[in-house]
Amino acid sequence: MTPDLECSALTKRFDQSLAVDDVSFSVPPGSFFSILGPSGCGKTTIMRMIAGFLPPTSGDIRIKGKSVLDVPPNKRPVNMVFQHLALFPMMNIADNIGYGLRRKGMAKTEITRKVGEVLDRIGLPDIANRKVDELSGGQKQRVAIARCMVLEPDVLLLDEPLGALDLKLREHMKIELKALQAAFDTTFVYITHDQSEALVMSDQIAVMNAGRFEQIGTAQELYYRPDTAFVAGFVGDSNRWAGKVETVEGGTLALRTDGGLLMRATAHERPLATGDRAEIFVRPEAIRLARSDADLAHFDNRLSGQVTSLLFNGAASRILVQSTQGGPEIEVTLPQSGEFSDVGRGNAVHIGWSGDQSNCFALRGAA
Amino acid sequence: MQAGTRLGFILLLTPLLLWLTLLIIIPHIDMLLLSLRERVGVGQYATSPANYLTFFGEPLYLRTFMRTAVMSVLATVITLLIAFPVSFYIAKIAKGRVQSSLFLLCLVPFWVSELVRTFGWMILLRETGLISTLLQYLGLASGPVEMLYNDAAMMVGLVYTSMLFMVVPLVTTLESLDDAVIEAGYDLGGSGISVLREIIIPHATPGIVSGSIVVFMLSLGNYLTPTMLGGKDSLWFTELIYSQFIVRFNWELGAAFGFMLLILSSVIVWGMLRVTGQTLEKTMG
């Protein structure tokens, strides 16, 4: 099947700086593809090139197999939901949604019918005659999507559209966006710096840093098996140590951190040799908490220490543990089964994790 | 505390009230009374609409009146047509230093008096002026060309004089238009013309209307430019008022003329607001 959107060796150079550096990816039809990266990594530049507002320095963009480099933005079969939505404040909702259809020269009655249909679909059938500033944030969001979807584009681009919403609404809109994407069965390309938005909604995520794609994969792949240290650090939270590989035996390696802790980890087929400088990442929820060392006997990494602080945040509560063997504090997720509800500052605890759960990467530029 | 607030309110209001009553309301009441007075003998006056009847009875007055109105509207339209692309460039296309220096360039001519600016145009346009000499030098004209003292010269002067008052409100409203809204217009299939018509102009309407009102009023009430650049055939209504007051010493007729001008500008501004669906608060606030 031809992918809906395909970018090959896409590059954009602004004067001195390379904003997008040789990026290639393809998005299969009907999928939700996200580009996740910190601000300034070049993700908006990619989106503007796909929409047609910026010409790429080199490389190609194909939509449904056809190159669109020579097609101006108003003729491309892609539409964009802007960061601040960019609804037309001078028009009412029906005119906003009907704008693109009017541009296509569609008959008035047909436009009214289509606008009515799409308003039904986004669950707001009665707002056709309202003004833009009479709508709530979530309603505007849905109208902005409807305004694009009514044109039946091959690809819908979304440029951090949830950024301006408050937290509760954002959580709600994540689910709603996913449902809308399924309902319209259109390819969505979504850019965001918020990892939770990307992880919750996407079929595929590309993690971008400094103009390049670090890794493309499903949410699970990125989270559990990151390809690079950047992905491991950017997606989700991690405890992070730098150290030196002491031994490599089969797939298992032992690493001595700069703080003096000895850790065992699985190499996951990453090229690491004895003596390499490396970084190790362990997720707080991969670490088990116990009252006695015996409970952790089956883990190959075990430490004991003292709780230095409790970071209570409901289901995502954590504690910081200072190991008796030194090194920086370790973040550990607090189990919510009630067993450790009395843990507080100063308590002695034992922690352990399986080396299989950690990820090691050779430190770049280190000998 | 309550008394203090009251005192502050009164103190703040006093200059405004003084300004309104002393400079606007009282003179206008006096002018109205003056215009409704007819001299029946030496030092003897009677109330009558005679001055207004003179105005409507004399074709020169009426024609000058209408001509002034039409020319002012024309000057406003030309100013708008020139100022809109200029403002769009300043507000949306130029960035940073270029933007502020372009804006400054529009302002610079207003550092000198209107009189000096008009003389500048005379230097350019007169028979022995720059343009005439240049045309002769290039062999495009066989003799001196007189470009002064006609409607075109006057129109150039009026447009030049009012340009800034159109550019400022237009730049302000255009700057408030989010670039993404224009991009969204293109993204959803709009062409340059349809984006201009459906998005940019509707957004800029308050600026267009407020700029047009100011330019129209300035042109209508302009005295200097028509007098200096316009010829004998380009009589401006303000010149008639001037001659009644100063030359003929007929204050009664002059006052009636003044009132007709006030009514004219009020009617046209009201009409302009009605046509564009704007209100005075929206455009001036």
- Rg of chain B, alpha carbons: 23 Å
Portion of residues in beta strands of chain B equals under 5%
Q: N-to-C SSE series of chain A?
A: EEEHEEEHHHEHEHEEHHEEEEEEEEEE
Structural class of chain A: alpha+beta
- Major interchain interface with per-chain residue totals: A-B, 25 and 17 residues
What is the second-level CATH architecture of the largest domain in chain A?
Answer: 3-Layer(aba) Sandwich
Indicate the multimeric state. heterodimer
Q: Which blocks of ≥5 consecutive residues of chain B have pLDDT under 50?
A: none
Could you give me the name of the CATH homologous superfamily of chain B? MetI-like
% residues in beta strands of chain A: 25-35%
Helix/sheet category of chain B = mainly alpha
What's the β-strand tally of chain A? 20
Question: Which short descriptors sum up this protein?
Answer:
heterodimer; A: about 375 residues; alpha+beta; Rossmann fold; OB fold (Dihydrolipoamide Acetyltransferase, E2P); six-stranded mixed beta sheet; five-stranded antiparallel beta sheet; 8 helices; B: about 280 residues; mainly alpha; MetI-like fold; two-stranded antiparallel ribbon; 13 helices; 2 strands; about 75% helix; globular
Secondary structure layout:
The complex is a heterodimer of chains A (367) and B (285).
Chain A lengths: L4 E10 L2 E11 L4 E5 L6 H9 L6 E6 L2 E2 L10 E4 L11 H11 L4 H14 L15 H13 L5 E5 L7 H18 L2 E6 L2 H7 L2 E6 L2 E6 L1 H6 L4 H6 L4 E11 L2 E6 L4 E5 L10 E6 L5 E3 L10 E11 L6 E6 L6 E4 L14 E6 L5 E4 L5
Parallel strand pairs in A: 3-8, 3-9, 6-7, 7-8
Antiparallel strand pairs in A: 1-2, 1-4, 4-5, 9-10, 11-12, 11-14, 12-13, 14-20, 15-19, 16-17, 16-19, 17-18
Helix pairs in contact in A: 2-3, 2-4
Chain B lengths: L1 H34 L1 E5 L2 E4 L2 H8 L1 H35 L2 H12 L6 H12 L4 H8 L13 H25 L3 H9 L4 H29 L3 H6 L7 H11 L3 H26 L3 H5 L1
Antiparallel strand pairs in B: 1-2
